[in-house]
Write a structure and sequence with these properties.
Elements lengths: L4 E6 L2 H6 L2 H10 L2 E6 L4 H13 L3 E5 L3 H4 L4 H13 L6 E8 L6 H21 L2 E7 L2 H10 L5 E4 L5
Parallel strand pairs: 1-2, 2-3, 3-4, 4-5, 5-6
Length: 163
């Protein structure tokens, strides 16, 4: 019996650029993967993931801005991601990859911007009842506090450092 698997966090957009995404998808499906959740790092990767999911029904797209990018993102970039979410609400698996990273991103000003962007996406997830695909590094208490504040019940944690 082949166990059915779900890859709940995959950055396959880089493989689209390299032209090897079809091979990777074929191998995954042959080995019991029934769904691959693609997560965006930024607007461009989110668009690639959405486009690939339109051609492959086993791909579940998420759009978002990764915390390594969010601290330097402009309000215009965030608006573009929001438009992408609203235009594709019927096909989205969730919002992600979003979150906080207090280990690899240093500086109170950068952390503050990460918080602002993450809270914005938490609000959007609550408004549209979408799952969150969360990057959490040395920030789990703040993240859980925000999830509780907005009554978020659907979330996948990636790189969780808590206990």
């Amino acid at each position: 019996m082949l166990i059915k698997l779900v890859d709940c966090h995959c950055h396959f957009d880089d493989y689209i650029d390299e032209g090897i995404d079809r091979e990777i998808f074929r191998e995954a499906l042959e080995n019991g993967v029934v769904c691959i959740v693609g997560v965006g790092m930024d607007f461009e990767s989110s668009k690639k993931i959405l486009n690939a999911s339109k051609e492959n029904d086993f791909l579940a797209p998420c759009t978002g801005i990764h915390p390594w990018e969010s601290w330097k993102s402009t309000d215009e970039e965030i608006k573009k991601i929001l438009e992408l979410i609203e235009e594709n609400i019927e096909v989205l698996a969730g919002i992600g990859e979003v979150g906080l990273d207090f280990r690899f991103i240093k500086g109170a000003d950068k952390w503050q911007r990460q918080r602002e962007v993450f809270e914005f996406f938490v609000k959007i997830a609550a408004e549209y009842n979408l799952a969150l695909n969360i990057h959490a590094v040395n920030a789990e208490k703040e993240i859980i506090s925000l999830l509780n504040k907005y009554d978020i019940e659907k979330a996948v944690f990636h790189w969780y450092t808590g206990s």
